[in-house]
Amino acid sequence: MNIVTLTIPQEVVQSNVPSWLERLGAALTTMGAIVFVLGSTGAFETVPILYSVISLIVSGVGILLLTVPAGLRVTSSSMNTNVMRSPVRRRGLAGWSLGVALTLFYILLYWFPETLVHVVASLEPLSRLIRNSPADRWFLYGTLYTLAVLVFGVRMLVRYRHSRYHLLRTVSLITAQLVFAYLLPSFLAAMGEPELYVHYFWPLKYDYIFPSSLSSMWSSGEGLTQFFAVWTVAMTVVITPILTYFYGKRWYCSWICGCGALAETVGDPFRQNADTSLRAWKIERWMVHGVLLFITVVTVMLWLDHVYDNVVFGSLAQRLKDIYGFVIGAMFSGVIGVGFYPIFGSRVWCRFGCPMAAYLGILQKYMSRFRITTNGGQCISCGNCSTYCEMGIDVRAYAQRGENIVRASCVGCGVCASVCPRGVLRLESGAKQR
Amino acid sequence: MVSSQLPILIIGNGVAGITAARTLRKLTQKPIVVVSDEAEFFFSRPALMYVFMGHMAWADIEPYESWFWEKNRIDLRFARVQHLEEGRAQLSDGSALPFETCIIATGSRPRQSSWPGSDLRGVHTFVSKSDLEQLHEAATTCRDAVVIGGGLIGVEVAEMLRSRNINVTFLVREERYWSSVIPAHESEIIEQEIVRHGVQLCLAAEVRSIDDDESGRVRSVTTTCGHTFPADLVVRTIGVEPNTVVADNSGIFVRRGIVVDNAFRTSMPNVFAIGDCCEFEDGTVEQLWYTARDHGEDVANILTGLTTSRRKRHFYNSAKFFDIEYQVFGDVPRMGGNEDVVLKQDDRRLLRIHVDEGVVRGFHSFGLRLRGETCLRMIDERSNIEDVLQRLTSIQFDAEFSQRITSHDRLYV
Ligand SMILES: Cc1cc2nc3c(=O)[nH]c(=O)nc-3n(C[C@H](O)[C@H](O)[C@H](O)COP(=O)(O)OP(=O)(O)OC[C@H]3O[C@@H](n4cnc5c(N)ncnc54)[C@H](O)[C@@H]3O)c2cc1C
Ligand code: SF4
Ligand code: SF4
Fold this sequence. Notes:
Distance between the termini of chain B: 68 Å
Largest interface: A-B, 57 and 63 residues
Bound molecules: flavin-adenine dinucleotide, iron/sulfur cluster
Strand order of the largest sheet of chain B: 21-22-25-24-23-26
Strand order of the largest sheet of chain A: 2-3
Strand content of chain A: under 5%
Number of domains of chain B: 3
CATH superfamily of the largest domain in chain B: FAD/NAD(P)-binding domain
Shape of chain A: globular
Number of strands of chain B: 26
Radius of gyration of chain B: 23 Å
Strand content of chain B: 25-35%
Number of helices of chain A: 19
CATH topology of the largest domain in chain B: FAD/NAD(P)-binding domain
Distance between the termini of chain A: 51 Å
Radius of gyration of chain A: 23 Å
Largest sheet of chain B: 6 strands, antiparallel
Mean pLDDT of chain B: 96
Shape of chain B: globular
CATH architecture of the largest domain in chain B: 3-Layer(bba) Sandwich
Structural class of chain B: alpha/beta
Order of helices and strands of chain A: EHHHHHHHHHHHHHHHHEHHHE
Helix content of chain B: 10-25%
CATH class of the largest domain in chain B: Alpha Beta
Mean pLDDT of chain A: 92
Oligomer: heterodimer
Low-confidence stretches of chain B: none
Largest sheet of chain A: 2 strands, antiparallel
């Protein structure tokens, strides 16, 4: 009998073939980065628009060229091919350098803003245009942040195009960042209103519930600001528990939150670097709940002071508030939280430091319908789920015993379920079905 | 006290041996010793491919952290057992280990092939940790590879080699892929998926010889009908057979596998065999991860007196062919059945419900996920096919927002 040879179709799915597009992308990204750094010395002071366009847009396009063709070539099963051999993604020299560069940027931004004045100045026209006010370093930060979420969001959409769950949550994250974190506050500023973030609330945006903020919002007498005061309290106390009951903490962490948006887009290449050991879990529980406790205590102290005219704690509450702002608000969430993406994975902040995650986590663990169900005995203990869980949850430990996963830290990103080669895992928040 | 007791000795730290050890530890205080010379710690054999492709590092495919063994007082020994005699295991380093009970869980080894040239340099198999290391080494300089054998491991190896952009020819003896297990319609889905990933798939291709380049290295593979495929790397994936070496050397009764009764007892007193290496009295040999794990649990329950024989379970299995996941629950015959309901969506998603006299007997799916628990319950309850079609959503397990397969997708074959 004769052999039957099946013809290989024209558009074969190929992996890791470098193309000229990628080389162009790499060139543009490098050029953008060099221009960005040179410009910070004031070299392009006379051409601010050109400078910001080249340093931001060109490197953005470069990153797109670098990631989109590659993303189109991979399929759901080859997405993680060679991740463990990538120096950028696996803590090689390139990964460490990237981490150092990011950390350095945060240090400059927070404590040496004068080094960034020329970069800030280049955004003056844009700031005038959309905020009708002068640019400052936070506008620079917001612009870079939003751009990064957009560009890496596209990468995410391309790579996870086979999954509607990932498409929808990524679109949601990008939209929330662009609209609620960037355009809306800019628009409010242009109107002469305070720059408020409708999608951040206590305990993440801890000062929204401080007596000073609430009373000044309330006494402003303006309808919009007063509405916001009611909104932010309602979000913390009522709406968050309700939504978390129905959907788990993911409604916030993987669909809306800005920190989540950065983690799920820029951070996605680094998710495998989250430590899955039991030791890391122990440390995480102490730290994240410690932070929640800290901010709760500070908030209560401030309120007691407010009610009893500063006779209870004197200046202590204020001092603690400042310490919290420095250690947690700035150092942890920015410097370590993002700077260490390439080293500890994309959710360092969310896992070890975020008080909102701790609050949502307690709700998720004890009063939520959300769980990851496991498909009986189908698990082959391969470890893909645990490896690619950005929260460092040892998903396999549960899956191989056929147990549901109900963990406070799970942000419901759904990646464990996507990378499982045996269809073992499913995120569920419906009522239990027969 | 405890140390003076003779241990339960387990040969092999695969899923069968380790599941037995873990389950025993929950049920008894007796000392437990596990001997193996493949890897220091238990790892997931089906995950070897992911290490090759760089999805995971070696440590990632080890399900337990290294402190686990000491904490649970499971004594791991890196050694090879030669044979058993009179309550003692003779180890390759010359020492002997006395035991109270011995569980042989030595797994499988690659099936031998009779073609000339099977032992040339450049000819590999893919079963063990050292196979992985050798293949990894060989693949770095390889351009053209031939994979022989149309089972599950063959597809995995083809996928692995494609991930390094190696030209892969996949020689399958049968006229359609995996015809010993799945119906023709399903074979076609997988065949299309294989070629879509750039593999040259040759069906009805029986190998005659693996050819030498005169220096002892492989040069090509020739089939019985005279085709010659150039190759600087050949992987034989024509199946595995029970690894019975220890039993053979010890005079234990062996046919294809180590013959055991329903309580896993071999012909030697106090010696049991589980997992890939055993064969039941009725001739069944089931070389699956799930089966091996179940055996491990069952033998522990039997040894501690919780039960007297192994639990009957429904058949289930799963695999992945490049991007297409496959799951089966219950009974789906290789030719299908004429009452079967087949639902198919966009050429790459298929659900077959095997029906006999109106009653549902099994499910299998390609490109979509099933909720095993619900499927098995429907089989147990001998559900009527009409009822099952009414409740199609309840058996699907794809991620939220995914497209669902419905009875509108029914294919009339
Ligand atoms: C590449 C590959 C992919 C697979 N994928 C799947 C899958 O997707 N789904 C599925 O159901 N099954 C799959 N299988 C089959 C599955 O891995 C086996 O059924 C399962 O591992 C059997 O477990 P076991 O414990 O019986 O034996 P093994 O896992 O083979 O373990 C036996 C151990 O005993 C050791 N040993 C042998 N002899 C001695 C001795 N004399 N002294 C000391 N130690 C010894 C061996 O070195 C080995 O470590 C796959 C197999 C392979 C090779
Ligand atoms: S357990 Fe799964 S869904 Fe939860 S955070 Fe980890 S990867 Fe995401
Ligand atoms: S749940 Fe899936 S990904 Fe996780 S170990 Fe089991 S088979 Fe692997």
